[in-house]
Amino acid sequence: MKKTILLLILFLILGGGTYLYIQQAPDKGSSGKGWDTTLTVDDTDKIQRIFIAKKTGVSYNLEKKKGVWYVNNEYRVRPAKIKYIFDALKRQRVKFIPNKGASENAVKSIASTGIKVETYDADGNTVLNFYVGGMTSDERGTYMIKEGSNQPFVMHIPSWEGGLRVRFWDKAENWRDRAVLRWDPSHIEYLKVDYPRNKSQSFEITKEANAYQVRPVYEVTGVSKKTANPAAIQEYLKLYKSKVSENFLNDFPARDSIGNLVPFCEITVKGKNLEDQTVSFFPERIDMEYEMPNVPGRVLANKGSVERYYVKNSYGDFQLVQQIVFGKLFVPYSYFFR
Q1: Boundaries of domain holding 332
Q2: CA separation, residue 143 to residues 85, 98, 155, 218 (Å)
Q3: Over the stretch 232-266, which tens digit does the pLDDT of each residue have?
Q4: 143 and 42 share a domain?
């Protein structure tokens, strides 16, 4: 945390220093001769940390830990956001070098509203640090200045039109991974799917040695005399690899009242050396009464079909999800014995 604050203070100082430095730079024309025009990272895999800041004091620290990217050491980063940044770092090129007048205006703009981007490898060594400004008047290029350089460049991605600034900056909630469930199927050691109002359909899957066992959760359900289908179990566990919500609803006024209701379904997942997770599903129309479907994977209610669910996540979030995305999770105990 202290390191992040120091980096932010340094950025604020450098914002003014960069402007003074470039003000003294000679007009070298558009050839760029004598300047380091490298604002590209060919091997983005070596980047393990990205620090992004504005002069307003807002900053984001993106760091990779055990193969997973986190923002500000708290939340997982949306995989698409990292991919978006890496794509820019790998493909962005100098479109042209602005003349002295345009350079001075670009520096003024970057000094007041620019974004500082710093990238580091696993050992904390700098990979590439630079400032990002606004777009050109035709919106086909973005002003950037490499740290330590005295000249802004207009950057673009060949065969792609649009500003690059949006690739490096977004609102806080948009950095976060919206996934409700993101489990490596091979790491799942215990899974319980509980239907509180349909207890006979509830089940649990337990990993024992190299095999999985499927059992009912409640005594009201008799243990099947059939052997569970291993392929059906494996295919079902694969569904937990990535299930993403439509949105976060952490400020939703009815969050607490909905979370205190009896859920339609409650799923618990456990893995070795991993944090347990429990997610509870409540139909968006909370006046619905639940009943299991005749067709596996489709959940119906007696007042119509369910299109969305509110989700209470033990990781601390309240989210909105779609039936079309999560519906295949809601299968009955008998599903594995067909």
Answers
A1: 180-337
A2: 16, 9, 6, 63
A3: 999 999 999 999 999 999 999 999 999 999 999 99
A4: yes
